[in-house]
Amino acid sequence: MKVEKTVEAPDQEDVEMDGKHLSLRVGRIISAEKHPDARSLVVVQVDVGEASPTTVVSGLLKLFPLDQVLNRMVILLCNLRPAKVRGVLSQAMVMCATSPEKVEILDPPGGAEPGDRVTFLGFLAEPEKELFDKKKEQVLCDLCTDGHCVATYRGAAFIVAGKGVCRAQTLSHCAVK
Q1: What is the pLDDT of residue 176?
Q2: Which end of the chain, N or C, is more open, meaning fewer C-beta atoms within 10 Å of its C-beta?
Q3: DSSP per residue over 14-56, as a string?
């Protein structure tokens, strides 16, 4: 008599995370308002090529005037677990290059459109449906800009297929968060 073994898919807690698990997309900020309950936060609606915009609650307000973020093209990490921030549900994160002195929003390449996927050369994209905080941190620690301000994951550039690389304006050799 043969005994069949069933193999369950590994839980996300057991899977080693890397850049292929991130769902990064190009978006355009279509509205930006001060958070109703927090002076330093902004609530932005971002077109990521889907039927409805993605809501992001961010600390960008203390760094950039609202008129500088409105209609700006950005890179979003879209598969974060949605979380309420001071009562407003945030569904994604705007990716920025950061140094102790400065923060710059990453720029997608020219010609990129809302919804375009951002991948890494050498990593087949297999985004998780939803990233857990612990696993997200495992991957984010390997994101940085190189000497040419290009955003990278373990040295592989953030790429929008057929359009180019994503970069910071001036920050090189800095963390990307």
Answers
A1: 96
A2: N
A3: GSPP-GGG--EEEEEEEEEEE-TT-TT-EEEEEE-SSSSPEEE
Total-model pTM: 0.85
For the stretch 139-143, contacts whose Cβ atoms lie closer than 8 Å and that sit 24 or more positions apart, written own/partner, are 139/17, 139/18, 139/19, 139/21, 139/22, 140/176, 140/177, 142/18, 142/19, 143/19, 143/95, 143/175, 143/176, 143/177
Residue that wins the pLDDT comparison between 14 and 173: 173
Give yes or no for a contact between 49 and 58, defined as CB atoms under 8 angstroms apart.
no
Three-class DSSP category at 88? strand
DSSP code for 127: -
Conformation bin of residue 59: beta by default, left when phi > 0, alpha when psi is -120 to 50: alpha
Q: Which of 18-27, 29-38, 53-62, 81-90 has the lowest mean pLDDT?
A: 18-27
Please report, for residues 139, 150, 154, the alpha-carbon distance to residue 144 in angstroms, rounded to integers and kept in the order given: 11, 8, 8
Comparing CA positions, the residue from 44, 27, 13 lying closest to residue 133 is 13
Closest CA to 93 of 124, 116, 59: 59
